Amino acid sequence: MALTADEVRHIARLARVALSDEEVERMREQLSGILDHFAVLNDVDTEGVPPTAQSLDLANVEREDAPRPSASPDEVLANAPRREGDYLRVRAVLDT
Amino acid sequence: MPEIDLDATAHEHAAHLRAGDYTARALAEATLARVQAQEPALNAYITLTEERALAQADAADVRLRAGESGPLIGVPIAIKDLLCTRGVRTTAGSHMLEPFVPFYDATVVARLDAAGAVTVGKANLDEFAMGSSTEFSAFGPTHNPWDLDRVPGGSSGGSAATVAARGVPLSIGTDTGGSIRQPAALCGILGLKPTYGRVSRFGVVAFASSLEQVGPFGRDAEDVARLLGVIAGPDERDATTAPMPVPDYTADFGRGLGGLRVGVPQQFLDRGLGPGVGEAIEQAIAVFEREGAIIDRSVTLPSADAALAVYYLIAPSEASANLARYDGVKYGFSYHEGGSVEEDMAETRGRGFGSEVKRRIMLGTYALSTGYYDAYYLKAQRVRTTISREFDAAFADHDLILTPTSPTTAFRLGEKLSDPYAMYLNDLFTIPVNIGGNPAISVPAGFAEGLPVGLHLIGRHFEEGTLLRAAHAYATLTDWHMRRPPATPAS
Predict the structure, then answer these.
(1) The one catalytic residue among B133, B137, B155, B200
(2) Is the pLDDT of residue B437 over 90?
(3) d(Cα B160, Cα B180) in Å, to the nearest integer?
(4) Chain A partners within 8 Å of B177 (Cβ)
(5) Is the pLDDT of residue B271 over 90?
(6) Cα B346 to chain center, whole Å?
(7) Is the pLDDT of residue B144 over 90?
(8) CA nearest to A61 within chain B
(9) Among B380, B264, B402, B374, CA closest to B312
C-alpha cells in the first residue's frame, strides 16, 4: 500500500514529530514497504475470534488504598528542563 | 589468596567469595579494570558505575564476613540502560533521555541491590529497545566480541557482548520481540525471556507494555536460573505481575533430557536459514534424541507466519502511546526555540528521537488512526489470539518447542541499516513467543563459519524450570557455552 507524502505529513502531525522533507520521503517509501507486508494478516481467518490485549490471565488486580510516602517536588522536578518554584514552566498555550 | 579468574561464572565467584578466597571489593576492582580495557573495542556500556559498584562491593563484603550467603552477594552484573537506577542517568540509548537521572530504582534493580549484586554499569542498547543490532543506539553501536566488525544483536546488545567477552558473568536485558534471545545467540551465551508477568516491569522505560519482559543473561544455565530466581515474582507496583510463588529454577537440573516431548516445527527450519545454522540445529536435535527426548517434527504453528506482521502493528502502536510522554516539558531533551507550544513539542521529538524510533511512532500512529484501526490494530489483536491458541494446542502434548533462535549468525555492522524490514526478519523465530507470552531461552549450539548459533527452546507459561532443565542438560553434554571469543582484550 503506497502512502502519499501528504499522508505521511498528516501522521507526523498527529504524532507531533517534526520531519524534514527528506525524512518525509524516506518515511513514505519505508512505511509503504512495511505496510505491504501486513497483507499476510488477511490470510488468517479471524471470524468470531476475539482480540487479545495481553497474554496474562489476570483482571482487576487490587491493593489496599493506603497513603504512603511519595516523591518530593524537588525529586520530581530535578529533571525538568524549565522550572519555576514547584512548577514546570511551559510556554503560553492560549493566544492572548 | 588465589588469583581471581574473571572468566568464572557467577556461581563460581559466589563460592570463592563465601570461602574468603577473595573479597567482593577485589573482584569489583578487577572486573572494572577488565571492562574498561574492553570498552574501546566493544562499546558495551553507556555509563560505567564505578562508585556504585565499589560501594555495593564493600557492603557485600560486610554481609559475607557476617556469614550471609546468597547467589549474588558480591557478584558483578551489568544492567541494560532501559532500567531506572536511582542517581545514575538512564538514557534508554536515546538523545531524548541523555540528561535523565531517575530518583528511584526499577524493582529489578532494587531486588539485585538487596541480593548484594555489584552493578558495574548501564549497558548499551538500541534506542528505546527498538532494533536487533544495537546500531540504533544514540551512543554508537556495540561490537560483537566474536568479530568486532559484526553486530552483537539487539536490542540488549551491550548486555550480551559484555557477558560473552567475560567482562561480567551476568547481565540484565529486556525482550519485547527477541531482544534478549537474539543477542544471546549472536554472542554465544544464554539468555532467557521469562513468561509475560513473571518479572516486574516497574521502572523499565516502556516500549510495548503487553509484550516486554525483563530477563537474565549468563554463561551457564545455573547462573541464569539463580538470577531469574532473584528478579522474578509479584510486585505490587506492577499490576501485570503474576501472583504465583517463585520456584527453585535449578530444581530439575538432575533430570536430563530423557522423556521431554519436543516439537520441532519444520516451517521454521525451512525459512532460508543462513549457512551452517540449520546444520548446527540438526546436531542439537540429535543430542536431544540421543539423550531420550521424544522429537516430533509434525508440530505446526500455522499462523506463526503472520506473527511478524502482528508484532509490527501491536508493538509500534503501544510505542506510539508510551512515547507520547516525551514532550520536552517534564524531563529529558527539550527544544524551546519554536514559535508555539506545538512546534516546540514536534521539534523536541523530531530532534530527540532517532530514525527507527520515529519510524515506529509513525507506524503505530497510523495503525491507530481513524479509518485504519479495525483493518490493522484490531485485526492484529485477533490474529494474536489465534497464534496464542496454536501455542496452547502445541503445548497440550509437547513440553518444549525447538527452533533456531535467529535465522542467521551475527551480520556485519551497517549491513541491514538501510532496510528496516530486513532488520525485522532477525526476530522471525523469537517474535511469536512474545505474542503468546510464553517463556523461551537461547542456548549456545555451536558455530557456523566461526560465529555462534543459538538454539531456541520455548516452554509453557510459567515453566521456565523446564527450559532451564533442558538448557542445563544440553550445555553439560556439549561445551559450546564454554567457548571464549578471541577478539577482546583479556585484561
Answers:
(1) B155
(2) yes
(3) 8
(4) none
(5) no
(6) 31
(7) yes
(8) B239
(9) B380
Domain covering B10-257: architecture: Alpha-Beta Complex (3.90)
Which tens digit of pLDDT belongs to each residue from A56-73? 878 888 888 999 999 999
Which residues from B are below 8 Å from A6, CB to CB?
A: none
pLDDT of residue B418: 86
Candidate from A16, A23, A49 with C-beta closest to B345: A16
Query: Can you tell me the ipTM of this complex?
Result: 0.94
> Which member of B305, B363, B437 has the closest CB to residue A34?
B363
Is B193 designated active site? no
CB-based burial label for A15 (10 Å; 0-12, 13-18, 19+) = buried
B444 strand-pairing partners: B454
DSSP state of A53: S
The string of pLDDT tens digits covering residues B48-104 is 999 999 999 999 999 999 999 899 999 999 999 999 999 999 999 999 999 999 999
Rounded-to-integer distance, Cα B367 and Cα A38, Å: 11
How many CB atoms sit inside 10 A of residue B195's CB?
A: 24
Average pLDDT over residues B473-479: 96
Nearest CA to B333 out of B355, B356, B349 is that of: B349
- Give the number of other Cβ atoms within 10 Å of residue B48's Cβ: 18
- Per DSSP, A75 falls in state H
Looking at chain B, which residue has its C-alpha nearest residue A9? B362
Domains in chain B: boundaries: 10-257
Q: A-chain residues within 8 Å CB-CB of B358?
A: 17, 19, 23, 27
**Fold of the CATH domain A1-45:** Histone, subunit A (1.10.20)
